[in-house]
Amino acid sequence: MVIDNPFIVITSTGEEEVVDRVEESIDLQLYINEVINNGGIILINGDPGVGKSTIINFVLRDIKKRDDIKVNKDSFTPSVLSKIKSLSKETGKKLLVILDDFNNIELIDKDQRDGIIRLLNELGSIGIGIIVVNNTKNNKTQKLINKIKTKFYIINVRGMKDEDIKKIIINRLNLIRKTKSNSLSPFTEEEIDKIIKEARGNPRIVLLICATLYDTKKEKLI
Question: In this predicted structure, what is the pLDDT of residue 190?
């Protein structure tokens, strides 16, 4: 008997519900409504894999259905902002921009960084909504963001609670079950508790560990 590994994809599958993160999702919805109408910047902070993109993608499901909004998502590079500036000249739609991996700004020289901050201020002030996604391993980016003068909102995405991590694991297992259940099988409670402790609330690390452990258990079932 061959069993597919439901943990092999460490990002959101799009088929699973968003566990926890209700407060962050509501905040993001409210902030998006504000910036697409009045301009401004939303800063989403969090360690790699903690769930920033999952929250954004969940909220954008409804935003993308609106005919009056154009959504543009890019990983950050210095040239991206010039592209956004040209997009802003299009008429008839509000513009929402998502800049992923903004911490890459640390890799360019000071003059370029200062120019990017000026451009962000300009874009925010002319009615463009911008979501900046920042990994919080380094505080240098935060210091640069503090130079932004246009109105901006902050969402800090932290590690998840133990019970919510277990829900993620159960949801993944239910993707391949004929009948959904709340069981953690084939994992034991002791194994899951150890995984949670090692991952420190980071769901991506949990999925990585579960993927390896699941393959080990799968071999015993073949």
Answer: 93
| Tokens representing residue 99 in the block | 């800049």
Q: Is the dihedral of CA 49, 50, 54, 59 positive or negative?
A: negative
Distance from C-alpha of 190 to C-alpha of 206, rounded to nearest angstrom: 14
pLDDT at 138: 58
Contact 110, 136 (CB under 8 A): no
What strands lie across the sheet with 69-75, from one edge to the other? Answer: 69-75, 94-100, 129-135, 40-46, 152-156
Model confidence at 159, in pLDDT bands (50, 70, 90)? confident
3-class secondary-structure state, position 10? coil
Does the pTM of the predicted model rise above 0.70? yes
- The pair of structure tokens assigned to 22 is 């209700």
8 Å CB contact between 170 and 60: no
Q: Which amino acid is at 84?
A: I
Q: Which domains does the chain have, with CATH numbers?
A: 22-156 (3.40.50.300), 162-221 (no CATH)
Tokens (6 digits) for 152: 């901006």
Give the pLDDT confidence score for residue 188 in this predicted structure: 92
* CB-facing half-sphere around the CA of 65: CA atoms within 13 A: 5
